[in-house]
Amino acid sequence: MEALKQYIIDFSNKNGKYASMCIINVAKALNIDEDTLDVMLRKLVADEFIICSLPADNKIYEFYLNQ
User: Fold this and answer.
1) Residues near 22 by Cβ (< 8 Å), separated by ≥ 6?
2) Cα torsion angle, 11, 15, 16, 17, sign
3) Phi, psi (5° rounding) for residue 41?
4) Residues 3-28: pLDDT tens digits?
5) What is the C-alpha separation between 37 and 39, in angstroms, rounded?
6) Which residues touch 41 (CB under 8 Å, ≥6 apart)?
7) Separation of alpha carbons 67 and 58, rounded Å
8) Average pLDDT value for residue range 54-60
9) pTM for the complete prediction?
10) How crowded is residue 6: how many other Cβ atoms within 10 Å of its Cβ?
11) Are the beta carbons of 50 and 40 closer than 8 angstroms?
12) Please, which residues bridge with residue 54 across strands?
């Protein structure tokens, strides 16, 4: 989870707070399967760390930092 949080923070610092990240790209970068990543992202949404900007097929597809 910490690696995911750091990835999100680094991406946001480089691209801007409202730059959306795609679950496919994040899964590849962190070598995590999309289903596991979806569970992790849902926890971060619940913790208000990120905001889901695009749900698709009952998954979080795109999201951005909420800080």
Assistant:
1) 61, 62
2) negative
3) -65, -40
4) 999 999 999 999 998 999 999 999 99
5) 5
6) 4, 23, 50, 52, 60, 63
7) 25
8) 86
9) 0.91
10) 11
11) no
12) 62
